[in-house]
Amino acid sequence: MAGSEFVYALPEEIKQGLTTDVYFTRTRRILERYGLLNAVVHAEVTVSGLPDGYKWAIFAG
Questions:
Q1: For 1-39, what is each residue's pLDDT tens digit?
Q2: Cβ distance 50 to 56 under 8 Å?
Q3: Residue 17 structural domain
Q4: What pTM does this model have?
């Protein structure tokens, strides 16, 4: 095989914010195209369970 079939980021590139998943860039381009880049949105997050020993968790992002 002449080269790698996969392109991946090095841990240093990820930690420095030098790379992202193509999903995010495509989504941003679509939102910009439709004038929705600054739209206010809401989401509901649920889980079916927590790891053993955990009674609660925080979702942030």
A1: 566 787 788 999 989 988 888 888 999 999 999 999 999
A2: yes
A3: 1-61
A4: 0.51
